[in-house]
Amino acid sequence: MQITTGCARTALALLTVALVTLPAPVAAAPGAEFALTVSPSRLVVEPGQAGDDQHFEVSNGGSAPVQVVVSKRDFAAGQDGTMAMTQNAPYSASNWISVRPGRFALAAGATVRVAVRITVPAAPEPGDHQVALVFLVPSDGTGANIRLNRGIGAPVFITVPGAVDDSTEIAALHAPRFALRGRPVTFTATIRDSGTVHRDFRAGQRLTIGVDGQQVHLPEFTVLRGSDRVVTSTWRDTPTWCSCRAVLSMTRADGTVQHSTVKILIMPVHLILIALAAILVLLAGAWLIRRRYRAQVLYAARTLHPAEDGD
Predict the structure, then answer these.
(1) Could you tell me if 59 and 184 lie in one domain?
(2) pLDDT tens track for 230-252
């Protein structure tokens, strides 16, 4: 979100951008004025497909017509899966593509196909190159103090043929070392792409963490070339007591399997406190019994001594 303040008015630009996949289009509420969807949510151009027909379909599910402007933006990958718009990003393909139409009117309920033409330069570096296409609906300029620009960003990945490498590794796996019974445990994994192309962890390639005989699934995600991706997942069905060893496994590009392990101690603190309270009660009772016994012995001794003195 970018906010710019002027002398007489404030301009507010709102851009909805997702790095890997946007959620499936959600049906707009009846009578909703604005509901723009773009399909597919990302475009992956495999080696040798640059000359094929590539396109997006932009649909207006709202009740009002809109003007759509298509622009190209360089972006860098955020660790949380978002796109950070930036200039001169590494592996940029912004100069490789053109779109038609670049600006169009979209009536309510209508769909427009936006063609994407890719022209790969001579002798490009093998591997992924990327750019984001931003489908922006500018403010209508009604003169209000707040102007709202709404849009959707869709990444385009172009893979140049050659010696490509989809090597990834588990850079880190974190979890709390100690947890209470019945409390969920959150795992945080950092996956690093050290190759030349992105890698998807989806469907059958989805990563899981094995712990206490259970499988905790990480969400589906993509890690981009030369970037780190941080993903989290929560283990909710935790046992009463466990000295657990959680293992995240991932198959590398060369077929070997990498394992990352973290240990977690789960304890039923309330049961431990009850046991400690019971022990304290027993100790206190024993102390009281012993004190009463000693008092009785002293009383008997004091009673006995005067009788002996009288004799």
Answers:
(1) no
(2) 999 999 999 888 899 999 999 98
pLDDT per position as a tens digit, 111-124: 999 999 999 999 89
Same domain, 51 and 172: no
Strands 66-73 and 242-251, how do they pair? unpaired
Where is pLDDT greater, at 8 or 68?
Answer: 68
Query: The whole model's pTM is what?
Result: 0.73
Buried/exposed code over 44-66 (b: 16+ C-beta within 10 A; e: otherwise): bbeeeebeeebebebbbbbeeeb
Half-sphere exposure of 31 (CA within 13 A, CB side): 0
Number of structural domains, the chain?
Answer: 3
Residues 134 and 52 in one domain: yes
Task: Beginning with the edge strand found earlier in the chain, give each strand of the sheet holding 36-39 in spatial order.
Answer: 36-39, 54-60, 111-118, 97-100
Tokens of 150: 């709404």
